[in-house]
């Protein structure tokens, strides 16, 4: 952890000493200054010397914009962080729970176990501790939050470190690290619809000098849902070991496993054949009880860091993530008949496997030029994503027709299934990247970055389908991705910035001459103002952006394509996060986004996305009492607000539309003693009926959770 050297009511030495003591009592906080390169680097919260340790602040540094920890004010892009303290306060358990609290992010439910995530009109990508993982966020189950220290989100193109991806942004999931001092924490929770959860987190040194240290996290969830039949049993195990091989070299190893079994995974309701939404109980689940879904996830991470006397550091990271998904189900394929009340089902079953290997090697450190110190970073990363499946029932007419809606029990179970389709695919990407943060003058910083990328995608038929040769998909060679930004400190507290960011997406369509189209390009200009107050405990940001998605494939009218399509995404965002006064904590954000087709043969001028609201706000604040009659009590309240959304822009789809809504959440916790806290959370306090997704006539019309409660007992030592 980087300890602040600024004096806050006491000397910086006393602040550092007390910070080291707090690390033992609060394992989610960062470690001592002498291990700043081996631990997640944190800005030391302001500390007022008293008998009780203050709560960790919501305001943290982030690594998402440059591999190294930076205060949000130093990042010339829109960035939000959901800290471990925020996760604890709201009882968040999954990545979807956390991203649902992020300014400008829309979470769209796929089914009970996985979701899609959007910002600025496009899907988000993901990185794990800064290692890009293309295709690993949307539609994939993530490890639960007990494994992670914080969730970072950068909105807008992030091609410098990610390579190819959609321009919506990137989520960086920062895993927990071992601490030098012993700490133990755990919790048990019970909530609505038989929702039970427990976790334990233990860390500390394995030898006397703390050069070898470990951390282990275990969690388990056993729960039902507000809709009928469905239930989930899931466990997570995570362990990490950090070893200071020498004073300048640290090795880190981590293993994680998660196992999820869900019965009758819910994927939404159908609509009427006319297209209108059904008016049915939120408990309604059209999925047969015999349906099953299983996710098994494993991850291995190895990192080594070597620090040089010059101040430079060289880091090498390797990760392997394997996920297997089995499911069998029956889903509604038609709207509900207004005359008969009947629907048709299709039954299916499949085994899917996913494997992602990645390497990221980079060096960073100071450079002296023109009498000033600058920061430089150069690196290389490589990733390979392989997937395959064996399945039954997608193309074959394995149907159950004329089933009364509301009677999924009449759909018979799949028996003695013989898979009839198979496929394999492989996507690889590699790239060299570099970034220079040049300190031109005391108030002026210029950031220049560039990446050169190679991308290749291919697929083939596999057993039980006829085995085929590899079929070449999207491919790109030596693609150049630039980045540039300027930051100017107006005052000691305010920084104005402007940035240009880009990203690319290879395409497979052919021109009339037989050549492949140029890649799509996501290019964004962002202007903003960022503030940092109260020694960094309170942060603010205001940004306006203009994003263009160019070179989109358009038909030339003769079975070939041209690079003439274009989409525009414009908007602005505002966020305040941190501690405005002792005992208070806030995270408030607003986003406005308008995304439409600028050039498109069939859709010009129409909205590009309709399920993302134009207006959204995330408001959360709490008051913690440290003295008087209410000592030990913490009260919190928040509101998630969204404007209207619909399933599509055409008249037929516009019937599936919902107006704006606000969801109110609240919490109350009481510290029984220094170690034990009891906490009560209430979500959707006023029981607002709303949809988290609006889909087609067959499925995906998904209600949000009704009012629900959770009681948690937490202990830490």
TrEMBL record:
<dbReference type="GO" id="GO:0038023">
    <property type="term" value="F:signaling receptor activity"/>
</dbReference>
<feature type="domain" description="TonB-dependent receptor plug">
    <location>
        <begin position="73"/>
        <end position="170"/>
    </location>
</feature>
<dbReference type="GO" id="GO:0009279">
    <property type="term" value="C:cell outer membrane"/>
</dbReference>
<dbReference type="InterPro" id="IPR010105">
    <property type="entry name" value="TonB_sidphr_rcpt"/>
</dbReference>
<dbReference type="Pfam" id="PF00593">
    <property type="entry name" value="TonB_dep_Rec_b-barrel"/>
</dbReference>
<keyword id="KW-0675">Receptor</keyword>
<keyword id="KW-0732">Signal</keyword>
<dbReference type="InterPro" id="IPR039426">
    <property type="entry name" value="TonB-dep_rcpt-like"/>
</dbReference>
<keyword id="KW-0812">Transmembrane</keyword>
<keyword id="KW-0998">Cell outer membrane</keyword>
<keyword id="KW-0472">Membrane</keyword>
<comment type="similarity">
    <text>Belongs to the TonB-dependent receptor family.</text>
</comment>
<feature type="domain" description="TonB-dependent receptor-like beta-barrel">
    <location>
        <begin position="283"/>
        <end position="685"/>
    </location>
</feature>
<keyword id="KW-0798">TonB box</keyword>
<protein>
    <submittedName>
        <fullName>TonB-dependent siderophore receptor</fullName>
    </submittedName>
</protein>
<dbReference type="Pfam" id="PF07715">
    <property type="entry name" value="Plug"/>
</dbReference>
<keyword id="KW-1134">Transmembrane beta strand</keyword>
<dbReference type="InterPro" id="IPR012910">
    <property type="entry name" value="Plug_dom"/>
</dbReference>
<feature type="signal peptide">
    <location>
        <begin position="1"/>
        <end position="30"/>
    </location>
</feature>
<dbReference type="InterPro" id="IPR037066">
    <property type="entry name" value="Plug_dom_sf"/>
</dbReference>
<dbReference type="GO" id="GO:0015891">
    <property type="term" value="P:siderophore transport"/>
</dbReference>
<dbReference type="GO" id="GO:0015344">
    <property type="term" value="F:siderophore uptake transmembrane transporter activity"/>
</dbReference>
<dbReference type="InterPro" id="IPR000531">
    <property type="entry name" value="Beta-barrel_TonB"/>
</dbReference>
<keyword id="KW-0813">Transport</keyword>
<dbReference type="InterPro" id="IPR036942">
    <property type="entry name" value="Beta-barrel_TonB_sf"/>
</dbReference>
